[in-house]
Design a protein that fits this description.
Layout lengths: L5 H9 L3 H7 L4 H7 L7 E4 L5 H10 L3 H4 L2 E5 L2 E2 L1 H11 L5 H24 L7 H9 L6 E5 L8 H7 L5 E2 L2 H14 L7
Parallel strand pairs: 1-2, 2-4
Antiparallel strand pairs: 3-5
């Protein structure tokens, strides 16, 4: 495979999953160098319960990874816990009580874990100083997509109750603060 033209190898890399790209980079130094740009997808997704801004700051400081990021997606959806718990009962009303309780406990345990992570990372999320450092070092950033309606959870029950509008919390204060930080930090960018 070393004798294949670079264009053909790049075409192969486009169809590989991330784990396969990591594996093929171990084959040789030429594959490692060629596949490096495919490690970071062009759209960077940020969720409030992960340290994505810390990770994005590190990526922005890397000479080749910083060029890979073209779009920043910020999913800022929050859960109104009171309504969500009621909607959980509504969604699962016709199910067997044992299955319902087991799935419900699993979903709320996952939510509690994500909520504590979100609270721990709250001062980093949309921090204006971090955002300015990041935006200055991402030369190919062309779009910032902020979404309050996409579900930030992986658990199927949480995704199901997210479809009910009363489940979503729209906090004006935190949303206004985050939007203001993003707009101020992005003031020098030329976005599409």
């Amino acid at each position: 495979m070393e004798r294949l033209p670079i264009e053909l190898r790049q075409e192969i890399l486009r169809y590989l999953q991330l784990q396969d790209i990591k594996s093929i980079r171990l084959a040789s130094t030429s594959w490692a160098e060629l596949a490096q740009t495919y490690l970071i997808p062009p759209t960077f997704l940020s969720l409030p319960h992960r340290d994505d801004f810390g990770r994005l700051l590190l990526l922005s400081q890397h000479p080749s990874f910083a060029r890979s990021i073209e779009k920043l997606e910020l999913d800022m959806g929050e859960l109104d816990e009171y309504h969500a718990r009621h909607n959980t009962f509504f969604v699962q009303y016709m199910r067997d009580p044992e299955d319902r309780d087991h799935e419900s406990q699993g979903a709320w345990a996952e939510y509690a874990k994500l909520k504590s992570q979100k609270e721990f990372l709250a001062d980093k999320y949309c921090n204006i100083d971090i955002l300015e450092k990041i935006f200055k070092k991402l030369p190919n950033l062309r779009a910032i997509d902020v979404n309050l309606m996409r579900c930030p959870f992986q658990h199927p029950l949480l995704q199901q109750i997210w479809q009910i509008p009363t489940t979503r919390l729209l906090s004006r204060e935190s949303t206004t603060q985050r939007f203001s930080s993003i707009i101020y930090a992005a003031r020098h960018l030329s976005l599409d």
